[in-house]
Design a protein that fits this description.
The complex is a heterotrimer of chains A (354), B (245) and C (68). By secondary structure, chain A is α/β, with parallel strands linked by helices. Helices cover 43% and strands 19% of the residues of chain A. In chain A, the strands form 3 sheets. Chain A has a 7-stranded mixed β-sheet with strand order 3-2-4-5-7-6-13, with helices on both faces. A 5-stranded mixed β-sheet of chain A has the order 10-12-11-14-15, sandwiched between helices. Chain B is an alpha/beta fold and 245 residues long. Helix content of chain B is 38%, strand content 18%. Chain B starts with a strand and ends with a strand. Helices cover 15% and strands 21% of the residues of chain C. In chain C, the strands form 2 sheets. Chain C has a two-stranded antiparallel ribbon. Chain C has a two-stranded antiparallel sheet with strand order 2-3. Chain C is globular, with a radius of gyration of 11 Å. The termini of chain C are close together. Classes of the chains: A alpha/beta (354), B alpha/beta (245), C alpha+beta (68). The interface between A and B is medium-sized, with 37 and 31 residues. Strand 9 of chain A pairs parallel with strand 3 of chain B, so a sheet runs across the interface.
């Protein structure tokens, strides 16, 4: 495939279509509008269905119905809209429904701002809805990676019968980058004998998350728990850059990781510091072991977590590093994006303390 | 002698959990019989159960069923129908589910002319949760959240779903019926069949509002509840066809 | 001649069938109770039954079968 210049949102939508997603239900909200817009143009061209719902609450429930009917289906939104979808996501987890939710995070809380942010980390990884549940969360750092992770997201959703989230941000959605689009999926979509109205159905299909008897609900929760352990075992993804014998480790994901990568390179020249970068690609399941391994190196004196928020992933960084090394945080919320200069200033103050 | 009346195969063998004399049971039977008489076969029917007294409907209708979040059945049904346009898709909802939390979903499903059929059971109260006031509770009606009687100055008037939705272009068939006596039960079945037929013919959205009793939370014996419905609910919720194209 | 049979164990003794019967031949068993503790409906004079199925149509638990 030749490389073409594509906007993040549109590339993500096209990737979904390439892997056989034929149903999209969404609602307008900046900064992800190009996803529903693109889908509204493309879905009819591929015999799919785009429908704009009356609200995000309705949209996620349309996705619930379509997924329960055996379709490969997705929705997208941005922070406030994702908050509205949390109940629906919890229901889909309870009913074991595969679906993909894309969140192009914007400044919060409340109406917040429309610029890029990472302030939905807790909501995504700790579950913004009710009940014991988890979502595999993929955090791409480039449009190319976002395209590739969409294919992974749908497969993971089907493999484990669980909703999956792709966590981007306003910048990732809006920037245009050269993209090598993924190939059209050739193999047929997986069979779903549990789904409603499908030819491969085995007896009466019941899509439900109600277990009125507590002992049955308990067993159902344990079944879901075993699923999460399986996902944790198989689906952790992380990238480490220049961590060998690093003095300081940066930990960042998504857009923030790209800026940190540049800061790490400049720190070598300007501060004489070997700075490595640990970039979680799955925010859940989180790469605790890999991060701990990097931090355990004798050379590493300090771990700096950088986010576009007031600090959420830093909790997981502390869990991974615990008391091995000092962990500090730098971030800017509300849609402000930390600059390379900001990070270098923080690294230099760390250097003085070393 | 031949059997002239027996339980439809469109209902499973699971006994209903409804309170004695609750007319949900009658409505389940009517919907099941109407579905069976469509002749499309159980495997080509997908129903969506609400949250409310009918939350266990997925145990009763002998076809594929989905349990929707409270108020969201029309959205779930929309998702299903878009994936399986050839299947008969219906939602079965109570007044709290449809006229309160799910008002946006039903209005927009109707406005879209979604080719689904909604059975809207209106008993003017929240049954499952113990008798709270519903959007369809009558002025002056005493409930556990309107202990002094529904005060319209304070919390407004009953929501008239058939009247509202029939203003839209999307619906093909909207009728309000009741099940308070044998004659009306027969009429209700005819209405449900017409609504399902409108769906099968692809005419658009269809809804049947069925006035129903709640002996337990109305605090009335079953037969008196039927009388209360006739004397109090019908004047507030006039029966009849509100939309037919 | 017609005949109705009750799936007694599923009857909740609600009495709607009694009210619906045009021939007024139904009643709730005065003494007998079913496994759930309800007085099930029963027919006092089957010979007067005309098989109209009004009882069956008003039964919320679909426990009545009608033959004619």
């Amino acid at each position: 495939m030749a490389k073409i210049l594509m906007k993040g949102n549109e590339a993500i939508a096209e990737a979904a279509i390439k892997v056989g997603c034929r149903f999209f239900f969404g609602y307008p909200i900046t900064p992800q509008n190009q996803i529903p817009e693109y889908m509204s143009k493309r879905m009819p061209q591929v015999g799919g269905c785009f429908l704009q719902a009356e609200s995000e609450v309705s949209a996620i429930n349309m996705v619930y119905g379509a997924s329960g009917a055996g379709a490969r289906v997705m929705t997208s939104s941005s922070s406030p809209g994702i908050s509205l979808k949390q109940e629906g996501i919890s229901y889909a987890v309870g009913a074991e429904l595969p679906l993909v939710v894309v969140n192009m995070v914007r400044g919060g809380p409340g109406l917040g701002s429309i610029q890029p942010a990472q302030s939905d980390y807790f909501q995504a990884t700790r579950g913004g809805g009710h009940g014991d549940y988890r979502l595999p969360v993929f955090a791409p750092a480039s449009v190319q990676e976002a395209v590739e992770l969409m294919a992974v997201a749908f497969d993971v959703a089907d493999r484990y019968r669980n909703p999956v989230m792709l966590l981007g941000d306003g910048m990732l959605g809006q920037i245009m980058e050269p993209v090598e689009m993924i190939e059209e999926r050739k193999e047929p979509l997986p069979k779903k004998p549990w789904a409603s109205g499908v030819p491969e159905k085995e007896g009466r299909s019941i899509i439900n998350s109600l277990y009125i008897n507590p002992d049955e609900c308990e067993q159902h929760n344990y079944k879901l728990e075993r699923k999460y352990q399986e996902i944790t075992k198989n689906e952790v993804r992380v990238e480490t850059i220049g961590c060998e014998d690093a003095d300081v480790l940066l930990v960042a994901y998504g857009t923030m990781a790209r800026i940190c990568q540049r800061a790490a390179r400049d720190a070598k020249k300007e501060l004489g510091l070997n700075v490595g970068l640990v970039r979680p690609i799955t925010l859940w399941p989180y790469p605790y072991e890999q991060l701990a391994k990097c931090a355990a190196q004798a050379s590493v004196k300090h771990v700096l977590c950088v986010e576009m928020s007031t600090g959420q992933m830093v909790d997981d960084v502390r869990l991974a590093v615990s008391d091995m090394k000092p962990v500090s945080f730098y971030g800017r919320p509300g849609g402000m994006v930390p600059t390379v200069k900001d990070i270098l200033a923080k690294l230099s103050s760390i250097k003085e303390g070393m | 002698m031949a059997v002239v009346f027996k339980k439809t195969s469109m209902l499973t063998d699971t006994p209903f959990h409804y309170c004695p004399g609750c007319t949900h049971g009658i409505i389940h039977r009517l919907v099941a019989e109407a579905l069976e008489e469509l002749g499309v076969g159980n495997d080509n029917i997908i129903g969506v159960a609400p949250v409310g007294c009918a939350v266990f409907a997925y145990n009763y209708f002998n076809c594929d069923m989905m349990e929707a979040a409270h108020g969201r059945a029309p959205a779930v049904a929309t998702g299903i129908k878009r994936v399986h346009p050839d299947k008969v898709v219906f939602t079965y909802q109570g007044d709290g589910d449809l006229a309160s939390i799910g008002a946006a979903e039903i209005v927009h499903a109707a406005a879209r002319g979604e080719k689904i059929t909604t059975i809207f059971v209106n008993n003017a109260i929240y049954g499952m949760t113990g008798g709270q006031m519903a959007p369809t509770s009558l002025p002056g009606q005493v409930t556990t959240t309107s202990p002094y009687g529904r005060n319209v100055e304070h919390c407004g008037y009953p929501v008239l779903m058939c009247e509202m939705l029939s203003q839209l272009n999307g619906p093909a068939y909207i009728e309000r019926v009741s099940v308070h006596d044998v004659a009306h039960v027969a009429a209700a079945k005819r209405a449900i069949k017409k609504a399902l037929q409108a769906q099968v013919e692809g005419k658009g959205f269809s809804m049947i509002e069925v006035l129903s009793t709640c002996p337990t939370n109305w605090g009335l014996p079953p037969e008196e509840a039927l009388k209360w419905l006739q004397e109090n609910m019908i004047p507030q919720f006039p029966l009849g066809v509100y939309k037919e194209i | 001649m017609a005949k109705i049979t009750f799936n007694e164990e599923l009857c909740k003794g609600c009495g709607l069938c009694v009210g619906a019967c045009p021939k007024k031949i139904l009643r709730l068993a005065p003494v007998r109770i079913n496994l759930k503790g309800y007085h099930p409906a029963e027919c006092e004079k089957m010979e007067d039954c005309i098989g109209c199925a009004s009882c069956a149509r008003m039964c919320p638990d679909v426990v009545i079968t009608v033959e004619r």
